[in-house]
Design goal:
112 residues, 6-stranded mixed beta sheet, 4-stranded antiparallel beta sheet
Length: 112
């Protein structure tokens, strides 16, 4: 099982970012895809998850309204989009499958 994420992103405050996570080696619709992030010097923070089979989502209260999860079953790729970025959104963002496989992480830096 492999989870491969898109590359590092640099954004200005107030902008949006979309990170992808391409899965392979298993049936994409058989596991939830979760998203988490780790800010500098902080622990891992769970953001929520999507069920690729039906698109059902669950968001952590801390991200509700500012984050959207989507999944494209034709390409076995999940996405997280975050709007209204702030400097404290600077973090490494991870996807992981319910089976326990993790992406390599995507650095998102928000800086004016």
């Amino acid at each position: 099982v492999h989870m491969v994420q898109s590359g590092a992103e640099l954004r200005n405050p107030g902008a949006s970012v979309k990170v992808s996570c391409k899965a392979s080696g298993y049936t994409f619709t058989s596991n939830y895809i979760h998203w988490a992030r780790q800010a500098p010097g902080q622990g891992l923070e769970w953001m929520g998850r999507i069920d690729p089979e039906d698109g059902g989502t669950k968001y952590s209260r801390n991200f509700q309204g500012r984050v959207t999860f989507t999944a494209d079953t034709s390409s076995s790729t999940a996405y997280v989009e975050m709007i209204s970025l702030r400097s404290n959104d600077t973090a490494v963002y991870y996807c992981f499958a319910g089976s326990g496989s993790w992406g390599q992480g995507t650095q998102v830096t928000v800086d004016s």
